Amino acid sequence: MNAPLHSGLEHWLSAPDDTPAPDWLLEQRRAARVRVSAQPLPHSKEEAWRYTSLKGLLEQDFSAIDEPLDALQAEDLDAVLIAGLDAHRVVLVNGRFAPELSTLDALPAGVRIGGLRDWLDRDPESLRGQLDTARGESGAFFALLNTAGLDDGLVLWLERGTLLERPVELIHLSVELDEPRVAHPRHLVYLEAGAQATLIERYVSLGASLYCTNAVVEVLLGRDAVLKHERLQMESRNAFHLTSLYLVQDANSRYVGVNIGLGARWARTDLNTRFRGEQAECLLHGLYLAGDGQLLDYHLDVEHAVPNCRSEEQFKGLLTGAGRAVFDGRVLVAKHAQKSDAAMSNRNLMLSEQAEIDTKPQLEIYADDVKCSHGTTVGQIEPEMLFYLRSRGIDAARAQRMLCLGFAAEILDQLGAEAVREQVAEAVAQRLG
Amino acid sequence: MTGASAVEDIVKSEYAHGFTTEIESDTLPPGLDEQVVRAISQRKGEPEFMTAQRLKAYRHWLTLREPEWAAVNYPKIDFQAISYYSAPKRPEDAPKSLDEIDPVLLETYNKLGIPIEEQKALAGIAVDAVFDSVSVATTFRSTLAEAGVIFCSISEALRDYPDLVKPYLGSVVPYTDNFYACLNAAVFSDGTFVYVPKGVRCPMELSTYFRINARNTGQFERTLIVAEAGSYVSYLEGCTAPQRDENQLHAAVVELIAMDDAEIKYSTVQNWYPGDERGVGGIYNFVTKRGDCRGARSKISWTQVETGSAITWKYPSCILRGDEAVGEFYSVAVTKGRQQADTGTKMIHLGKNTRSTIVSKGISAGEGQQTYRGLVRIGRRAEGARNHTQCDSLLIGDRCSANTVPYIEVKNPSAKMEHEATTSKISDDQLFYCRSRGLTEEDAVSMIVNGFCKEVFNELPMEFAVEAQKLLSISLEGAVG
Fold it and tell me: PANTHER family, per this entry (chain A) (predicted)?
């Protein structure tokens, strides 16, 4: 009945009837499973996986979580909370919505937040035509796997014209389990016309456990909607992390994304954005810090499908130890998408002998009246700058840290809440030693 | 004056150099098997090792599949429908001076505006004119011989200096390199061999004009340039082809080797027949060009102006093996009508303090499709490597496309590399500025486009720069103005 999965991924999916789901969704999951089984595993001959090997991931023999977990206590959460952050909080523990840890009281009218599983149980029809649509026909391997294993996640739905002032904090907490587990969280963020919200999506863990997160986030922005989306990947240094974002923007909407990558042993992030209406704007910022034994891999696929849209992609990287990073950004301007404006930049600071960076910013342009550019740099801290600080009595390590934080500040400053900004800056400083 | 009518104008502009010379050719029947490979080798009177090497390449080629990763579309090539050898008749009594050259040939050159006689006196350029596959005219051999420079066809070199050629041929582009390079290694027809001895500065610019003529004949040129320690050579390659209906395959291989402190400058102006307005009949240009900076402080510089061919697939590369070696790539590529070009460069930094510069200017008009595909790789031991890359694309008309696909791989932290790319059209402000000063729209566009390409033209030898500018103006005639 079930199509067999690739070797190394055999246990990635639990039986499909574990999740309460309407028939249309079961059908979607089944189709995804058939499709993913029929596809070869991503390999280095494929452009999108040229620099990233799946070897380490496949060796782990992760298995899907099928049993409900013992409930965590509220105190367990303390270790991962950001002091001073005032937000509506949604907590997922190993991919499962934990209502007892979430604080969803005092939601303004027009705002609906909940666990996907509950939602499918209560009101499945409302998600029909929304859930799993932003992905389009994409055959991306792990996003398909996520659909096949779709189980739980967050639904954030703002009705027309709703302004949500406090941010929504989404915490993915992974706790130590008896064996290496994989979770497939799926989030749906739907802002109807004119709605505005801030979403802070955090990936954290208790302890240094080995696990895998394979998340998919779908974001649908209606006309004039505004979403600030901050994504902080601070997984355990033993973890494997895969996320795919699918963003679809209607006319005059605005998306501001900040992607911070500090954690995980092996992390792959795919950001796919598409304009569906004119005059929309999409800003993608990113900061990654790869240290010893880490691989952080970013793929951007920005599609200007309609005229008069603007996008800006700005990613910065710090590489220490034997850290490796990959940046593969692609901006596509379709035929007739005149007056498109796209600027992509990727800057990297190499701080050690063994670090390695592979970067590939691409432009693919089929319209003539456009303004597109990309820039990439790979370099080191200028000795003159270090000298300047040293001559003012600052020791070498501190001077380097200051300069790196200065380099990172451009991205860190995009984080809206001061508490978040401070916490991330501190984590970066700590990693720089 | 509008974009739409302008685009139609260029699409309609006929290929100015389209004519075929009637000349008897000694041609092998179409098809490829071991017999054909042996026959080519035999006809050229090659030494035994070469025949063996060709056969080895041919057998390997049978195991390869045509590459599909480039952003170009074309009907599948039937490699059995191509004739792999075509030489102008009378190969026995090769001409010793221009008087002996077939007058029909001379006339062809004159139509193309390549006056061999004048050039002798005028530019001081030695011309090794390749008409189809065998060299029929070589000049200034004696001057070069005095300096110790060997400049001859590769077949001659294989016959006369086999020991000199053997260690180098295939050492930069091995037959296993890629599909087309492998095919070339099996069936290469002719090409040029240049050897510049130690410490010699080649007394003149070397130049070869290629011309594809016989129908249904693939051209498989093989060029090998060796610059010994402390030497310098500048080599120019230019070509144009007559109008014809069948697609012509051209799969050349160029290998450059620069020893300690040597410098090779390789310039190309390529203007092969691009096909008619429906894209029928143009040349397929699948070329492998690679330079090996083997010695310390060696330098290899590629400059290319690509305006012709239906399909161009070409990545002149530099392997910067020696410490402080320098690699350069300057390119202007124009695609119009239905032309497709997937071109760029590779800079492989292996030695310490190696430096490379890439300047690529792409102009896409009509339904032209263009991709810049480049690789900059900084190896683990390439301490202090430096790269600067700039790729700019200019779009004319709304049916063309321009892609930029740079790969940057850095494994050494002391590397410094910068990459910039822009894509835009000729801005209305620029046009307005020129128009308000009394320039016609056509002159304004020509001026802006020439300015856009200036950095590359500046790298060309003077005679070529003039020709290239003229070519660019002709190529874009009526594009906007």
Answer: PROTEIN ABCI7, CHLOROPLASTIC (PTHR43575)
